[in-house]
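Risk register update: the risk of archive-format incompatibility is retired. Evidence:
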Amino acid sequence: MKYLIYILFIQQASAQAIDQLGVKKGITMNGSINTSTTKYKAFGMNQRRDPLAWYMNGNINIHLFGYAMPFSFSYSNQGTQYSQPFNQYRFAPSYKWAKLYLGTTSMQFSNYTLAGHVFNGAGVELTPGKWRIAAMYGTLEKSLNRKGYGTKLGYENNGNSYSIALFTAKDGIPQHATAHDDSAHDATAANATTKNQTAAFAIKQHITKRIFADAEYSISLLNNLYYDAIQAGLGYTANTYSIQLRYERVAPDYTTLGAYTVVNDMRNITIAPTLQFWKGKITLSGNAGLQVNNLNHQKMSDTRRWVANINTAITPNDHWTMSANYSNFNTFTRVRPLADPYFTNPLDTLDYYQLNTTYNGMLMYRINNSAITLNTSFQHASDKSDANDNLSSFFTSNLSYTYLLKKQDMSLTTAFNYYYNTSAGFNTEFFGPNLNISKQFFNKTCKVALVTTYNRTKVASTQTDLFNTGLTLGYTPKGKKHNISSSLLYLQKDAVREYTGTMNYSYSF
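Archived output:
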């Protein structure tokens, strides 16, 4: 019994509502156990995997009066693993508009204050009426003894919102140092100034019925250094179209200890229109923008990126579906060496261009129980500098046909794949068909599937043929929690042959 109690309290539980907890729920348990055995044999090459492998794994979820505690394990001839999902606990009870966080958890205030950083402590979220209140306190980094605390206050009404978020984090004496160690004094001196204070002010407002705007201004004080960030947007929405302008600027070296990473030293301006016509059967959307860095001109290189993206979706009737996508990423980088303050040689600079263009298309035709689908993709990339010019292109396509025999519980899919790549003076070509047939028997309790694929790959003057086929059999009794399946796979690549057989059994409770 003591081991059961130990397991119950070391597991992490998901959020539960206090008003749902009660004796009536009692103690319940569910989960599954899976076993598998694989036999492998190869000819014409060294064995690349064990000839015989087996394993058992399972997961158990215990519900104690509505409180969930997951547990999982695995065992095989490769080793044993016991899993405590996070080796921590998390308890997040809620009641109506109040929610409490205890243990190892995370909260989100804003992108530039507290942004999903995991902490071990306590937090609360309150949403009475139109008010939004949040607060937290805990340890963010145990090794640094980094403590953090913060609060957020907001108000929402009819799509409009106003909020302010405050967050502070500070490092203390590392836990490995004690008051009797000389390292304790050194750690205190080293970490005394590692303190971060951040604040964010956000507003979202509908100016008119169709015009809306939002803005957020954030500031960060890290070790007496001041940084700021701003993001704002202005949009217009009509019956058949909409457009939005966005501006974002993050100062160089902007940092918050409440986030793992922050993309800083950048300015981004984008425009995103959307258009619908023909009673919504055609949709056009796009996104274009410019992003630059090195805002304070202190770095050795400048980067400027142009981004354009266009999407089209057409559904004229129940039979046809079409979509297309075009994207273009154009990057310009100027690299400058550290210059003499009294002399600058323009010949020392290096201009570097990158261009990446992608086209994607899909065409589908459906009628009765069949469908024909064509997918294509083309990507062109180029890297050009003052000294080099590298080009590469990729083309892929897939044509498939699917036919369903509903009365016979049978499906048939056949397809042909083609791929062509040109890069660094080498050409790679790949093509081949595949076939997939599945059939269900005995009132859909038994399923048989056959998959066959043939591929030919050409790289320069080298050609490789690959053929593989597999047969799978599965049985799941109606209303039962058992499942039995087996498969036999055969692969041949030139003179190499491989056989793989697998048996699986699973039980759910």
